[in-house]
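Give me structure tokens for this 419-residue protein.
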Amino acid sequence: MVPRFTLRNLFAAALAAAALTPGIAVQQELQLDHRMNEHIEQVPAGPQGLAMLETTVFQPNGPGPFPLIIINHGKDPGRPNLQPRDRFYYMASAFVKRGYAVMVPMRQGFASSTGRYREYGCNMTANGYAQAEDIAATLAYARRQKWVDPKRIVIAGQSYGGLATMAIGTKDLPGVRGLINFAGGLRDDSDRCAWRSALVTAFAEYGAKTRLPTLWMYGENDSLFGPELAHRMHAAFEGAGGRGRLVMLPTFKRDSHGMLASRDGEKVWLDDTLRFLDQIGMPTAVIHDVPPPPSPVRTDYAQVDDVEAVPFLSENGRRAYQEYLTKMTPRAFALSPSGAWTWAEEGEDPDGRALATCTAKSKEPCRLYSVDDYVVWNGNLDQAEKTSVTASVTPVPKPAVDPTAAAPTTSIGSNKATH
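Here you go.
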């Protein structure tokens, strides 16, 4: 099976050259956000509950019980156990502000969850059902927690998680009031797999067995599941008896499939989501203040588009910075006195991803130079950095001429761009 890009791939670290190992910037573990009481819980799943699902939990302050939303992730290309923990930070923040607890389970075989990832090739119906089993385990666990209101629950999913969310709707789900499908589906480009038709068949079966109200949200420029396919899947679902409103969202940046990962996505998906929540009797009013993460301080070191002002860079690095200036916000550019550099755009914490990748490739500590549309570099170097910079630009002294001596070899600070 060859499932294509999901939300993280589309808005993962955008790195400035091919020699950099893909994924370094996104696979560093993000720090827990204690402003939303973020923590990890292990949810039992699978036969006899022996598998443990690495589950991110966000909660408002207080003991609850809180209404709950369970958000389900997609699948990146490659081995599921190499996929980092999903947290849907921006979506989670919107719900915590409205008094919800949020659970994001990594299904069996993904990230640090134990158990075995199961797939059924081009049988999209079976794929959805298999993944839905872990959502059911998460729901059962949640209903036993004192901080969860067992009568006010919503289940949502993006991409493969959207397919699984619709699959679990075929079950009896006490306390669940509705399902939200964000760009749900699974793509398989292997030979002889008519995956589009297989998805239509899957959603038809789910529609015949689902009695919960559903909201479907797909984007006009979704690279995986475009408008024509979205309408086919939705028509099959409703034609078989399911209830669901399809919202075709406008073009979003380069690819609307990654909208939930974007800081700017909320302004597109939130209104229709709140309307749906209100219709099914779930809270919609903001009752908690969740301030945005602190941003690096703007400096007057230079204008963000002044390429010549950026320190340490070779010509190759300057070309990379020019390319960086064409990228979408949120974005960040990091560099080090050794000449290493890296940039990241979109997704969660581009600042941290750029720093992590740069540091992994640099002999010297990396610092942020610019974020979004402004410079955060202040030009101040500590003594160690000054020493490194001096060593990198100081000519190697010529040795005294000795015809019998071997030519000296000297290692100096490299100003090559780190890719």
